[in-house]
Amino acid sequence: YAGCLAFGASAPSQFFSSATGYGTLGYALPAAIGARLARQTDAPVFALVGDGGLQFSLPEMGSAVEARADIVMVLWNNRGYGEIKSYMEGAAITPLGVDIHTPDFRLLAEGYGWAHMTADDPAAMAVAVTAALASRRPTVIEIDEATYVAASERPKR
Fold first, then answer.
1. Mean pLDDT by 10-residue block, N- to C-terminus, for the chain (157 residues)?
2. Residue 88 belongs to some domain of the structure
3. Distance separating alpha carbons of residues 93 and 99, to the nearest angstrom
4. What residues pair up with 45 in beta bridges, in sequence order?
5. Residues ≥6 apart with Cβ < 8 Å to 71
6. DSSP character at residue 55
7. Is residue 36 within 8 Å of residue 63, measured between CB atoms?
8. DSSP state of 57
9. Is 49 inside any structural domain?
10. Could you tell me the pTM of the whole model?
């Protein structure tokens, strides 16, 4: 959803989102693999995914390595189904089933043969994206929501 709200592609066929409701959890990674394999250029392919959604398709990390799909996966880690929880709270529904176990994504990435980086603020994100694109291998850039939001709220110097 964040991609739909905050990203403006500069040309057609540069952004796709299936975010039409809560039924597309797990779609980002396999869709990015397909996009990478279908691209006839070296243009980068990014997957924007939440930690809950990624857990629906973790084995596809192995598929990306086997296919040599150099995807950059931006992983927003809010330790659960944050979008659904926010909706429930906004509708005065007691959140249920949205605070899920969160694995160590660094270990999972390394286990599947991906590089793993973290980004705690916008400057670190820019550095991580540059490094990930230069590596030409599948890379997870993990953003811890609490840390990132806190860094974004710090006074600018």
1. 62 64 79 90 90 95 96 94 89 94 96 97 95 97 87 66
2. yes
3. 14
4. 71
5. 29, 32, 33, 36, 45, 46, 47, 64, 138, 139
6. T
7. no
8. S
9. yes
10. 0.84
Cβ contact 52:82 at 8 Å: yes
Residue 132 lies in a domain: yes
8-state DSSP, 56: T
Are the beta carbons of 115 and 132 closer than 8 angstroms?
yes
Could you give the number of structural domains in the chain? Answer: 1
Q: What is the CATH number of the domain that holds 114?
A: 3.40.50.970
d(CA 156, CA 71) in angstroms, rounded, equals: 32
What pLDDT is attached to residue 24? 76
- Which tokens hold the place of 49? 């995914």
Find the domain containing 68 and state its range: 23-152
* pLDDT for the residue 12: 65
Closest CA to 26 of 68, 61, 66: 61
